[in-house]
Design goal:
Layout: E1 4-7, E2 11-15, H1 21-29, H2 31-34, H3 42-50, E3 55-62, E4 68-75, E5 83-91, H4 98-113, E6 118-124, H5 128-136, E7 140-151, E8 154-164, H6 165-173
Parallel strand pairs: 5-6
Antiparallel strand pairs: 1-2, 2-3, 3-4, 4-5, 6-8, 7-8
């Protein structure tokens, strides 16, 4: 039985299992997603699924149907500074508000369950849709790493975004976050 991490109105986050590997790999290598991420190998995903102490693959699924709608990769679970990296945030069913709910659930799990101090992520600077989502969910642009990734012979920039536990709690007090407890 898959471990449920947190549940929202329409979605829930659960720890990925080996049977999810085809779905994860399909999302990563879908052309619309691939241009915005650096994909990981199936072997790496399987290693993380089998031993999720430092990093974890997480499936975003519809609460009622159990149908997967996205996938997350989270790292830093043993970080002594209580800093979590959200390495991949990929929603397969776009345009339904699932990205917003998935981000709210990810923040609730990160700050309410894991008791993290800080969460951060990077995003390619031309991924306007994702940057809008992350910033609308309270992420703050902290910097720009110029020409750091070489993709198809072109150097790309990464925007670094972060959110602190006190910023999350402030948003939660103002009713901007997941209302229930994980």
């Amino acid at each position: 039985m898959a471990k449920i991490l947190v549940t929202g109105n329409r979605l829930r986050l659960r720890q990925a299992e080996e049977c999810d590997i085809a779905y994860i790999m399909g999302l990563e290598y879908e052309p619309e997603n691939l241009k915005f991420i650096v994909p990981f190998s199936e072997e790496l995903h399987l290693a993380v699924i089998r031993s999720p102490e430092e990093s974890m693959d997480i499936i975003v699924e519809e609460k009622d149907s159990g149908e997967p709608v996205g996938y997350l990769w989270v790292s830093g679970l043993k970080n002594t500074s209580h800093e979590i990296e959200w390495t991949h945030v990929i929603i397969g069913k776009k345009g339904r508000g699932y990205g917003h709910e998935a981000m709210k659930l990810l923040k609730a799990w990160t700050f309410d369950v894991l008791k993290a101090h800080r969460a951060w992520m990077d995003c390619k600077d031309y991924n306007a849709r994702a940057l809008h989502l992350y910033e609308s969910e309270g992420m703050v642009r902290e910097g720009l790493i110029r020409e750091t990734i070489l993709t198809n012979g072109v150097y790309e920039n990464l925007v670094i975004l972060g959110i602190l536990d006190r910023e999350y709690r402030d948003r939660k007090e103002r009713g901007m976050e997941h209302a229930g407890e994980p």
